[in-house]
Write a structure and sequence with these properties.
DUF302; TT1751-like_sf; five-stranded antiparallel sheet; 5 strands
C-alpha cells in the first residue's frame, strides 16, 4: 500500500516539478545564499536583493505563473501593528500543489502538519531581506518519506522560487 502511494506521489510531482527543475539555477549560482550551522540542517536561507514587499510580490507572481495556488499570505508586521507592537517587515506565503500534498498525506497523514509549503520573507536587523523555507529532506525524513524522489523535486522548486524572488534580474 505504501509503495502504491509512493508511486502516486512520484507521478503527481512529475507534472508540478518538471518545469522547476528545468529552469532552476544551481544553488551555488543563487547570489547571497548563506546558511549558519543550525539553519543548514533545518532551513534553507537566501539573502534577497530587493525589499520584502517586492520579494513577496515576485514570489507570488512566480507561483501564479506556475499555476501553483497561494492559500494564504500572513503579514506578521501588519498584524503586530494592529496589536500595537513593532515588527520589521515579515511575511509568510503559504502555497502548494494539492496533488503532491495529498499523495504525501496518503503515504503518511502525519505530514499534514507540515503542509502546505511555506516561504518566510523578512527584513533582518541589518536591513537585508532574508528568505527561508524548510529543508524538505530533513522535514520529510521525520515521517519516513525523505528518500522519495518528489521530496528532492519539492526542494528544487523551493530553491528556484526563492532564487527568483530574491533576484533583481
Amino acid at each position: 500500500m505504501v509503495e502504491l502511494h509512493r508511486r502516486a506521489i512520484a507521478e503527481a510531482a512529475a507534472t508540478d516539478a518538471t518545469a522547476a527543475a528545468a529552469t532552476a539555477p544551481p544553488t551555488a549560482a543563487i547570489e547571497g545564499v548563506s546558511m549558519g550551522q543550525p539553519e543548514s540542517r533545518n532551513l534553507h536561507l537566501t539573502v534577497g536583493n530587493l525589499p520584502v514587499d517586492e520579494t513577496v510580490r515576485r514570489l507570488t507572481d512566480e507561483l501564479a505563473a506556475r499555476s501553483i495556488p497561494v492559500f494564504a499570505t500572513f503579514d506578521h508586521a501588519q498584524n503586530a501593528e494592529g496589536a500595537g507592537l513593532d515588527l520589521r517587515p515579515t511575511t509568510v506565503v503559504v502555497f502548494g500543489s494539492p496533488q503532491v500534498g495529498t499523495a504525501l498525506m496518503q503515504a503518511d497523514q502525519r505530514i499534514a502538519i507540515e503542509l502546505p509549503l511555506r516561504i518566510s520573507i523578512w527584513e533582518d536587523e541589518a536591513g537585508r531581506t532574508q528568505i527561508a523555507f524548510p529543508q524538505m529532506k530533513e522535514l520529510a525524513a521525520r515521517y519516513g518519506l525523505g528518500d522519495l524522489p518528489v521530496i528532492a523535486k519539492m526542494q528544487q522548486l523551493l530553491e528556484t522560487l526563492a532564487g527568483q524572488a530574491a533576484s533583481n534580474r
